[in-house]
Amino acid sequence: MVLKEALLYKKSDGNKVSCFLCSHRCKISDGGFGICGVRENRAGILYTHAYGELIAQNIDPIEKKPLYHFHPGTYSYSIAAIGCNFRCDFCQNWQISQVGEARDLGLKPRAARVEDVVAQARQTRCRSISYTYTEPTIFFEFAYEISQSARKEGLDNVFVTNGYMTAEMLSLYNGFLHAANVDLKSFRDGYYKRICKGRLAPVLDSIKLMKKTGIWIEVTTLIVPGLNDSEEEIKDIAEFISGVDRGIPWHVSRFHPQYRMEERNATPVGILERAYDIGREAGLQFVYLGNVPGKGNDTKCPHCGMLLVQRSGFSVLKNVIRDGKCPRCATEIAGVGL
Question: 81, 94, 193, 324: which could join 259 in a potential S-S bond, CB 3.0 to 4.6 Å?
């Protein structure tokens, strides 16, 4: 393991440090770790344990992120390091996102170099590099260096994130992050505190700031039965996204029992279909249903209704968008590389 001095922290008296990479803004005593479990204070210097240490490397369709309006039909070289700054009870990647769980399972990351990741992305003809599976904010130093090198090679950079980074991090990343899928898990602060061990407001701030700085955004909400599936809350989420930009795609995803929620039932498809209707009623131009095979994955023109992009699973079967516009009515379709 290569310990590297972290970015985005300040030293204070008594060998303490204040980390401002994410919105927990941990104050860490000498010998301690931040909430993420991978940033350690050693004698007043903050080090990251997540630099050059990857637990996953895969070639994914960009639609798997999910990003439906960002270079559709292309592939993204996808990487992850162990760790997360949330503790979501329903996490689908808990084996690698939770440091303690990964340790108990005996999982060992693989050493990786910036130049090797970029070379592998190019060799496999990927259009972008995605920092995904776990929370990419916690391995920011490695992602940042890869992003800079990737950009020189003509590759875009994608975050699949809980949105809990700080404005300072996004400012440093400006110009190197091109797209993000942000999990907006709920519109209730109590849900974030209880289920995720975080807060709502920083996530909303990140979405607004990403939009303002020109990062392409798509939003995903996992609908969990009995927790965030009321029509009132779904409407609040849809209206927030629409208020930022009606062209932001919203992926409404189906919950399946796992991790600490194995006893809870899967989301009824009818709730997702109602969420779709609520999203459209709120003015959103593009709403998609996730984890529901054969339903709600196609892109249609928001003006004339023409089928523009037909999908099956994560595969694009056809794409008739031309120069970013509907070929029938010339309506501009929000997105990048359409």
Answer: 94
275-301: pLDDT as tens digits: 999 999 999 999 999 888 777 899 999
| Torsion angle in degrees (nearest 10) through CA of 6, 179, 200, 169 | 30
How far apart CA 126 and CA 204 sit, in angstroms, is 30
What is the separation, in whole angstroms, between the first and last Cα of the chain? 41
Per-residue pLDDT at 291: 86
Helix (H), strand (E) at residue 203 = helix 201-212
Cα–Cα nearest to 168, from 214, 220, 114, 213: 213
| Token pair 């931040």 in the structure block, residue | 34
Angle among Cα 151, 37, 101 to the nearest 5 degrees reads 105
In one letter, which amino acid is 117?
V
Helices 231-244 and 201-212, axial angle in degrees (round to 10): 30
CB 86 within 8 A of CB 222: no
CA dihedral of 250, 290, 190, 80, whole degrees rounded to 10:
-100
Q: Is the pLDDT of residue 2 over 80?
A: no
Closest CA to 118 of 70, 66, 79: 79
pTM of the prediction?
A: 0.97
Confidence category of residue 244, pLDDT binned at 50, 70, 90? very high
Distance from C-alpha of 185 to C-alpha of 222, rounded to nearest angstrom: 6
Angle at 288 between CA 286 and CA 293, to 5 degrees: 155
CA 294 centroid distance within chain = 23
Q: Mean pLDDT over residues 249-259, rounded?
A: 96
Length of the chain: 338
Q: Are 126 and 74 in contact (CB under 8 A)?
A: yes
Compute the distance between CA of residue 227 and CA of residue 279 in angstroms, rounded to an integer. 19
Residue 66, preceding peptide bond in cis (omega within 30° of 0): yes
Report whether 184 contacts 163 (CB < 8 A). yes
When pLDDT is averaged across residues 81-108 and rounded to a whole number, the result is 95
Token output for 34: 């931040």
